[in-house]
Design goal:
homodimer; 490 residues; alpha+beta; BirA Bifunctional Protein, domain 2; Rossmann fold; Translation Initiation Factor IF3; 3 domains; five-stranded mixed β-sheet; 14 helices; 26 strands; 35% helix
Chain lengths: 490, 490
């Protein structure tokens, strides 16, 4: 922690990159576009996984696992699906290396696969091919399955967590007897994601549906949650798709209904990924480093002893032991850092960089006065308080920090969401004060595309429960019945 | 559950395949050698993961994530490593598909990778290439990292869980300043595996080291745990490798020691996989289906109502609610199966097939008599007992079942471990009463290889803390100082 990082104002993108490195979250690997998620970064992802997994199970889902590879022929069965993914997929063509006789290890051309395998970019095709064997009757439905897995999309421009060739995610794939039930499921899971984003990540999100242009390849309707980052760019934080009968038809998955009729099954899929770690970083962190919501912080409280003598250290350690026991019994994760290789100031900067929500410093004078110095990461405020009831104080403080971080992000979003009533206003807003822009749109893909080309802003979503309002499209001047949400996006 | 499965005596291999299918554990996928782990099978794996993950963390390890792909050049840097894995690896050569103009989706030859990527069969190479950037000084050591991941080995003959082209596993990769510390780590993790096998899977294991022939490709020493299946074949249930400085040298990972000297880092790696699900199945199950140790059973207790009237069902349901609440407070997972689409007999057979440790049947007469009928899966004994203190009874019963399953497996192993003092005896034992055979061996790879070719038996391990005993090799007649453990193996 010898030096700080570039400030957000100076260079937001550079700030992000340096923060990810200095906070020990992730790094680029030797494999193009693939990242190494370092232990500290991975422990945040693990906390996300645990919370989400519980939410999925509480809504009736179970986990399963499907193959990493998808035969090329499956991949191409759903027309818009392959169109969406074909240009960025890793292809396995051989299954063996050999020594060429000169000591070089080369690909063995005798071990060429009859049919190429695609490393899954998403698993609808292999899963629906499997579901064909699982469904005969309405009694076999619904299937409510989730998978935690790695997927690969050969992105040309990558950024740690936000866009990488390989990433970790979960993908839910459900099968239903009716269209209505599938839509209900897609909407339920969107609400789970929104709940998770707001109550765990402390990131307020707009729930909405995507325009046809921005829909998942193969979906009838794509629901999404959209968050606003501190640089005013939007980030899609999760999607839930109503797939209609598209994949059931492509893979011939039928069931006999209660009425004895043979029908195609209805589908949903929904996913969030390690991208959420990127969203988390960019939503809350500051020029001193990471700011983590307590619910996802691997270490919630750190205790740093400030001592001159070994005797001081022993007494501080004794006090710390007692506090740690009390905090652990409240399920608060706490670290006591008595490393003698680093000074307190170094440790303070390190835990600030790593976003530990609460820091306690404790010296010999504190022991005499029955006090501790407590610093919260979110506001960077320090306070000297009594040791009396400290565990309860910390428990409440963590709750308060979680709420405060959310409120701050919500306030930022409110301040950076505005209406534009002309294309001039729209472009000015985008350039001067980026954020969400609520504007009328004529509903055509052509207009959407033009605006995107000219301004790099896309329609993030049509918010759910959108207010109907007569107006005219900012681009074409044609009539419009509602505003949609534009932004430049990650 | 309309019909049973082939008995073990009739055809053990067929019994296994049918059991895996009927108990809804896994199935073959459309991709050669890759399996679909179905929800019930996956939930057993999840329980294994949770227990192991806690054990890893309790011994100071953290999780991280490294790329799925390994550049071919990395893969070939450690000579014996590439030799061990090159003949069975999936190779990615392209990163795009395209439309050939005639409506066919083909591999885009313009998108050929400059360097082929290997889908990781194990991650030593990519991880040690990463560690080079993590280690400068002895202060950066040890690195105690684990990864939960999928890996691919292009096996030609596959069997669900036991041998599949893709499988799930964890791989620990640690880095140390001294040889002694690394050996200690490798031995510590072997003990973690043995503890897990015995106390969770209820599978007794022999702890040992592999002969050079059977060592991991790139290891200096391979520690292993070996279990005995009901057909008398051995199964390697986990390995822990002391890698010496082999990978540090191949990837130039050095550190400055306390004494200021530049030295290569010492390494270990250790892993267990979804293979353990196969070991679990084959160790305990019977001709009626799966037998699960309570600690890994996704459902520990099932309650089946036996009723004639709706009124009966309502009263049984009320009783079940109370019992479920009590069991849940003891962290016992319980399912109440009041499906009206199936008869009790069908349900009994289903839960037997799925290995649910305790089944409670409850009818109107039981309510009158204040009793329940309780059946344990392991012994298939039924008993009518009082409802008084039922939760405590069940809690104790689950502990007893866990222990009983282990004892049974241990007794089986004891009965099926014998000494052979001549090659004739050895071959006879193998054919008539397969199991572990303890025999003298001259310590040469040649003899080991000959015995393998002639009998298909391999040296499973040289047991740790092996008794020294003068003798002569059963094959060569040369002197030997200890017995080693042979078996035919999965």
């Amino acid at each position: 922690m010898s030096k700080g990082i570039t400030s957000r104002a100076e260079d937001y993108s550079q700030w992000y990159n340096e923060l990810v490195a200095k906070a020990d979250l992730a790094e680029h690997s030797a494999v193009r576009g693939c990242m190494v998620i370092k232990p500290y970064g991975y422990s945040i992802w693990e906390k996300m996984q645990a919370a989400l997994d519980k939410m999925f199970k509480d809504t009736g889902h179970t986990n399963a696992y499907f193959p990493l590879f998808i035969p090329k022929s499956f991949f191409t069965k759903e027309a818009s699906h392959v169109e969406g993914f074909a240009t960025e997929c890793a292809v396995v063509t051989h299954y063996r290396l050999k020594n060429d006789g000169n000591g070089n290890i080369i690909v063995d051309e005798d071990a060429k696969l009859e049919e190429e395998l695609i490393v899954r970019p998403t698993s609808e095709t292999i899963i629906w091919n499997t579901y064909r064997g699982w469904v005969q009757s309405y009694r076999d439905l619904p299937i409510l399955v989730n998978q935690w897995a790695n997927v690969v999309r050969w992105e040309m421009r990558t950024r740690l967590f936000l866009r990488t060739a390989e990433f970790l995610w979960q993908e839910g794939h459900t099968a239903h007897a009716t269209s209505g039930e599938a839509i209900e499921e897609a909407e339920r899971m969107l609400e789970v994601y929104a709940d998770f984003a707001e109550n765990w990540l402390a990131v307020p999100v707009i729930r909405g549906i995507k325009t046809p242009n921005e829909r998942f390849a193969g979906a009838v309707e794509t629901y999404c949650i959209e968050a606003l980052m501190q640089d005013g760019k939007a980030l899609q934080a999760g999607t839930s798709h109503f797939l209609g009968q598209n994949f059931a038809k492509a893979f011939d998955v039928k069931f006999t209904s209660k009425e004895g009729k043979l029908e195609h099954v209805w589908a949903t899929s929904w996913g969030v990924s390690t991208r959420l770690v990127g969203a988390l970083i960019m939503s809350h962190s500051d020029d001193q480093g990471l700011v983590l919501p307590p619910k996802l912080a691997p270490i919630q409280v750190v205790i740093v002893p400030i001592h001159k003598t070994d005797d001081d250290l022993a007494r501080i350690g004794q006090f710390a032991d007692g506090l740690i026991a009390k905090l652990k019994s409240k399920n608060i994760s706490v670290k006591y850092d008595d490393r003698d290789t680093q000074r307190p100031g170094f440790k303070f900067a390190e835990y600030e960089m790593k976003g530990v929500p609460v820091r306690i410093a404790l010296g010999a004078r504190d022991l005499e006065n029955n006090t501790v110095e407590i610093a919260r990461r979110d506001t960077r405020e320090k306070q000297t308080i009594s040791q009396e009831g400290l565990d309860l104080y910390i428990e409440n403080l963590l709750t308060e920090i979680q709420q405060n971080i959310y409120n701050k992000a919500l306030e930022f979003r409110t301040q950076n969401t505005r209406e534009a009533n002309s294309y001039e206003e729209f472009k000015k807003a985008l350039d001067e004060t980026p954020g969400f822009i609520s504007a009328h749109w004529d509903g055509t893909p052509e207009t959407e595309q033009k605006i995107k080309e000219e301004t790099k802003a896309t329609i993030r979503c049509i918010p759910l429960n959108n207010k109907k309002e007569e107006g005219v499209c900012i681009y074409s001047g044609k009539p419009s019945s509602q505003r949609v949400l534009f932004a430049r996006a990650y």
